[in-house]
Amino acid sequence: MNTALQPAGSTSGPLPPRSGFSLKSPDGLTLAGCEWLPARSEPDMTAAAIPVLCLPGLSRNSRDFNDIAEYLQSLNHHVIALDYRGRGRSEWDPDWRNYDLTIEGKDIDAAIEQLGLERFALLGTSRGGLHALAMSGRYPANRMAAVIFNDVGPHIEMRAIHRIAATLGHKMTHASLEDAAVSLQRTLGNQFPAFDLANWRKFAGQVASDDGGQMIMDYDPALAHQLASLDDAAPVADLWHLYEKLTDRPVLILHGEHSDLLSEETCLRMLDSHPNARLKTIRGQGHAPVLWERDTQEEIARFLEGL
Predict the structure, then answer these.
(1) Which residues pair with 87 in a beta bridge?
(2) Which parts of the chain are beta strand (E)?
(3) Can you give the pLDDT at residue 229?
(4) 3-state DSSP helix/strand/coil percent for the chain, to nearest 5?
C-alpha cells in the first residue's frame, strides 16, 4: 500500500468509541449521525478544543469522516458527522424533490440546535462545502467560527457534475466488497491513481453496507433525479457572494491534485479574495480527498488550533 495513504496510527490510550445518534427533521423524518467525544474530559476549559461539524458529499455518509474524526478526537475535539436524508442511516424521503440544498439546510439547522452546538468549525466535503457557503449568512463568525472546504468552492466545474450524474443511482448492488471495490476503481481510478486494491476496499466500505452478503450503496437511488435534468446551456451558479460572507473567519481549502470539480483557478481566486484563507493540495487524489493520510490530518489540526 502507498504509505502516503496509510490510516493514522493509534494514539496512546483508548479513545471513546464512535457513537450513533438520531434526531427528527423539521418535517418528521428520522435523521442519523455519528459523534466522537473528546479524548479527555477535564473541567479545565483550556483543554477544550473547538467542536467540528462534518458534512459529507452528495451521495456520501458520515463514515467518510472516520479517520479524520478519530485523529481530531485524540486532540480533544468533539466531532459530529451528519447523514443527510436519504443517505447513510437516515430515513429516505418519499419525495425525491426534498433532496435539495434548502431542505437539507433546514435539517442541518435543526441538528445544530438539537445537538446544542454553540460554536463550531465546519468541515464540508463537496456538497457539504456548498452547505457551508449557504450557512455563511445564517451563522455569524461567533457561531460558525471557521470553514474547511474539502475540494469544493464557489465555482464548480460542470464536467464533474456530468461525471457524477452518469453514475448516480446506477449499480447500487454489488456481489461482495471486492466487487464494489473493483467497480469504484473502474469509475474513479483517474481521480485516485495512487490507490491500490486495499484503498479501494476501504473506500467501498465507506460508501456501501453489507446486506445479506451483498454490498448496497448507502443512499436512496432516487437522489439521481436531482441531476437527471442537467441543462448544458444553463449558466453555472455563481456562489462568490456567499464566499465573501466568510471573509470574517478563517478558511482552509483542501484541493485534490486530480480533481475535476475544483480547479486550480478557483483555488487561487479563493485565496486572493479572502484575507485569512490557506490552501493545501493533496497529491495523488482527486474529488474528493479521503482525509486518511496523516499530513492532511495534521494540516487540519493546525488550522483548528488557531481557533
Answers:
(1) 219
(2) 19-24, 30-36, 52-55, 79-83, 120-125, 144-150, 173-174, 208-211, 214-217, 251-256, 277-282
(3) 73
(4) 35, 20, 45
Is residue 103 within 8 A of residue 85, CB to CB? The reply is yes
Distance between first and last Cα of the chain: 35
Measured in whole angstroms, how far is the alpha carbon of residue 112 from the centre of its chain?
A: 16
Task: Indicate the SS3 state at residue 23.
Answer: strand
Asked whether the beta carbons of 219 and 86 are under 8 A apart, the reply is yes
Give per-residue pLDDT as tens, 137-183: 999 999 999 999 999 999 999 999 999 999 999 999 999 999 999 99
- Dist. CA 209–CA 287, nearest whole Å: 21
Locate cell 441538528: which residue?
Answer: 111
What is the rounded CA–CA span in Å between residue 246 and residue 45? 27
- Which residue reads 468549525 in cell numbers? 121
In the 8-state DSSP scheme, what is residue 84? P
* pTM for the model: 0.93
What the chain holds in terms of domains, given with CATH numbers, is: 3-39+46-167+238-305 (3.40.50.1820), 170-218 (no CATH)
DSSP one-letter code for 236 = P
Of 77, 7, 64, the C-alpha closest to 36 is 77
Tell me which amino acid residue 22 is: S
Give per-residue pLDDT as tens, 16-58: 889 999 999 999 999 999 999 998 865 554 457 999 999 999 9
Report pLDDT for 10: 40
Residue partners of 295: CB distance under 8 A and separation at least 6: 4
Helices (H), 168-207: 177-188, 197-207
Q: How far apart are alpha carbons 35 and 305 in whole angstroms? A: 20
Task: Report the alpha-carbon distance of residue 233 to residue 244 in Å, rounded.
Answer: 27
- Name the average pLDDT for the chain: 92
Of 114, 111, 124, nearest to 253 by C-alpha is 124
